Structures are given as structure tokens and as C-alpha cells.
Amino acid sequence: MLSRWMSGSSRNLDREYNCTVRLLDDSEYTCTIQRDAKGQYLFDLLCHHLNLLEKDYFGIRFVDPDKQRHWLEFTKSVVKQMRAQPPFTMCFRVKFYPTDPAALKEEITRYLVFLQIKRDLYHGRLLCKTSDAALLAAYILQAEIGDYDPGKHPEGYSSKFQFFPKHSEKLERKIAEIHKSELSGQTPATSELNFLRKAQTLETYGVDPHPCKDVSGNAAFLAFTPFGFVVLQGNKRVHFIKWNEVTKMKFEGKTFYLYVSQKEEKKIVLTYFAPTPEACKHLWKCGIENQAFYKLEKSSQVRTVSSSNLFFKGSRFRYSGRVAKEVMESSAKIKREPPEIHRAGLVPSRSCPSITHGPRLSSVPRTRRRAVHISIMEGLESLRDSAHSTPVRSASHGDAFAGPGRGGRAESSERVAVIADESYSPADSVLPTPVAEHSLELMLLSRQANGAPCSIEEEKESEAGTPAAEAEAGELRALCPGAGGLGPAQAQQVNKFVLSVLRLLLVTVGLLFVLLLLLIVLTESDLDTAFFRDIRQTPEFEQFHYQYFCPLRRWFACKLRAVVSLLIDT
Known about the structure:
Layout: H1 2-13, E1 16-22, E2 28-34, H2 39-50, E3 58-63, E4 69-71, H3 78-81, E5 88-94, H4 107-123, H5 130-145, H6 169-181, H7 188-200, E6 210-214, E7 219-225, E8 228-233, E9 236-242, E10 246-252, E11 255-262, E12 266-273, H8 277-295, E13 305-306, E14 316-317, H9 324-332, H10 366-385, H11 398-401, H12 409-412, H13 437-450, H14 458-464, H15 468-479, H16 488-524, H17 530-536, H18 539-569
Parallel strand pairs: 1-5
Antiparallel strand pairs: 1-2, 3-4, 3-5, 6-7, 6-12, 7-8, 8-9, 10-11, 11-12, 13-14
């Protein structure tokens, strides 16, 4: 029997699991890992496949069955982190955006960061004005199709590409004009470098928004950038806090706390509410990792962080990688021949159709277009009139992100404001181009259910490998919990609360038991150490011993004798 158990255990340990990792160019890397393989092993396999040395900026992300995103922890087993059944599906993404992407040592690293920012632009995470949007899109065109050729590129050729969640014809003409006249002769590497230099100057460079609400119930999006912590509301960046001003981050349940220390010893605690406890924990872990990566000088300064001040409660987490300064110093020492780059070219893409030749998004009817414009204006008006709960410092640029006024509809076509595929609904953009039918219906449904726009997680669908309808329904349940019954996240929260109460009771009983043992030793034992002698000689202890403890002992002994005699008689 023992040999059978040992053989079964060995087979279980030797079991292999299939993993599929979707790369930034939408290709897939498939491998098999052992049950006890750490995240670092899988990440090293990917980096070897990509011939990547400056790998500290990247990470592996996956989505659990509850549609919650996670970054794969390299110090833990891959199988234990994945709650889904094999085969496992993950995504290779930029985790820490370089402070200066143009200063990266190798072209292969710059190319991968270029692919990530191009995804950010398409999915709406990168806010920009129309002039900046046109220039960025022209750089993408030049990098992917080369110089303008009248024989290959007929009139309206830029409309065959999808750079943003929504396009306008005027914007497409501007993109084609820049591509024709200003970028001729640029190689793909040069166009990608210029793209990175321009993207770096934008306010929302490196933003990966987390949907939350402030204490007033206003929808907000929290994000971490190379330069600090930002708060986004509507289509504006309303607050910016530098990393050296953030003193502490913690969470309890769905509540996230950010402790800020500004000039003149001004201390502020910012409070936000995540949709679920798991989302709040993910937000907290991302904040801890980003602050350690960008703020610290050495990885030896990294400390284990607890989400609570009590030793028996909360989560503990420690960033396990190198910090930005160490990564830059290590990159400067790289000496090898530049690796060959296999650019994606004109390959169909699932989640980033900017490199496809498909048609643009279909327009909605004129009456539906009017409804979209009205809902946008109402949202901007309510945002303008609302009182924010975090009056720290405003860093928004009105000329870049302010919505058009009642009399400025003609000017609205000159602006692009799109943000966050995971967080922002494309219908909330002030760009007057109509949105797709299903996006509008989901937006109207979410406004009725929650009073605020819910997100449409397009890229999450591709990462999780689930149908679009299921992803939309899961997102609606996550961000609008009042619309349904007790979901898995709420049940998990109740279970965590019950476990926390039980843990508190257990610790209390344990402390009382220790105190009781100490009292018995003091009163009943013959131990004559200096510590016990000093306690016994105090007047307070003598009074307690003769007035309280001795009568209690006699009463307890009397009751015990009565119970024993009763048992003997029966």
C-alpha cells in the first residue's frame, strides 16, 4: 500500500500542464510545465523565446474564472496560482512602463514596448488630443506599411486601419496627410522610436486603470504610472501624486487607502472603493510593486508589506524583482549583436485590428447617435458639478481633455479622448463618432443599473478566452452588484469576514488561556524566581490573592465536590 501511495504521488508530481501565452503581436507561445514549476521558470522560457534580455519591464498576466486579473508571481508555483482548469491561458504584457522608453538599450525591447503602447492606444488607455492621435497613428502606419505609394495606397487607405476605439473621417484624413508628407523615408525602427518619444509625453502614458468609486459614490479610475499615482474621472486626469509623496497603501475588504504626505507636513488619507475584495487586493499589490520598482534605489530595500496593522489579520506581500535603477544599470552592460526582430506586419489580429485591412466600426443610426451625444454631455456636466472627495492637486489639462460646451459642437470634432479598454466605455468619449450597437446598449443598461458607466473589458475577453457576451455579463455583475443576487465575490467576502471573526475569537481565547496559566503559576506553584517573587510581594497581588482568588478557588472546589458526589450517588 505504501509503495502504491508513493508511486501515485510521484505520478502526481511529474504531471505536466499545457500553457498558452499570448504575446504582444497576438501570436501564441505554447509549452508544458511541471506541477511544481515556478512563475520565474515560465517567464524565462518566454524571454528566451523572444530573445529578450531587458525583461524586468514585462510580466505575465492571467484572468481567473471570476474575470479578475492577476499578475503571475514568479516566486510561487504556476499551477497553485491558476484557479482555472488546464490548459492554462496567459498573456505576456508590459508590467512596468519604462520612464524613458526611447532610452532602452536594445531595439527588441523598444519594439515590444511599442506593441504594448499601440494596444493601449487602440483600447483607449492612452488619452490624447486629435493632433497627437493623428501623429501616433501615422507613425504606426509608417512602421507597418512603409512609405506612401500611390499605386498601393488608394484614397482613404488609412480608414482600413483601426487605431482607436472610434474614428472620424477628418482624423483619418489627417493621419494620411502626415503619413504622406512628413514620415517618408523612416525605417520601422525609426518610426517606432518616434512613436515612443511622443507617447511618453502624454499624461496617461503607462496607465492601466482600476475601476473604483470615491467616498461620494462618483466613478473613478485609479492607476499607477512611472511617475506616481493618478486618479481619473470621466475623460480627465484629476489628481496626480508623486511616488515620494505616497507613504503607505493598505486595503480592507473592498476599501483601498492611500496615505499621502505632501509639503508643509500635510498628511492626507485617500479612500476609494473597488468593485470586489479581489479587485481591491489586486489594486493594492499593483501599487506596492509599482512604488517599489520606481521609488527604491536597490532591491535590498524592499520590505514585506502588510495590508493591516494587526499581526493576525490582512494579507502580506513582497515585491520580488529588481528596481528600475538596477535594471537600467544592468541594461547598460549588455554587449551583444542586436537580435533579429520578426515584426508582425500585416497579420490579422484578434484584439488590436490596427494591423488588419478590415472595415471601420459600423455606425449607429442617426437617432441613436443623438442619444449618445446627449448622454455624453450629461456625464460631463455631472462630472463638472460634482464635488471630488480627494482635493489633493489637480493635474488635468483643460485644452486636452475638457468636453465641448453647449455651443461648441463644431470644435468637438477636433478632440480625441479615449481611455481604458478595461475601464472606460467608448461611449463616454467626447469624440462625436458613433459607437458600435452592442457598446451603446451595454452602456445604457449599466447606467440604469448603477447610475454610472460600467466598463467594457474588450481585451480581458481575449485574455480569458471567453465569449464576448459572457465577459460583458461578468463585468456588469462585478461593477453593478446591486443588479443581481449574492454572487461568488460577495459569498467569498462573507466567508472572509466569518474567518476573520473566528480568528479574532481564537486569538482572544488563546490570550485568556495564557493569562490563566500565568495566574495559576503565580498563585499555586512553588517557583521562586525573581520575577515571580517581585509580583507576589506587590500589595495589589496580595489583595487580589486573598480577596478574590482564594474565595473563587473555594467556591469552585465546593461545586466540583458537589458534582462528583452527585455522580457517585447516581
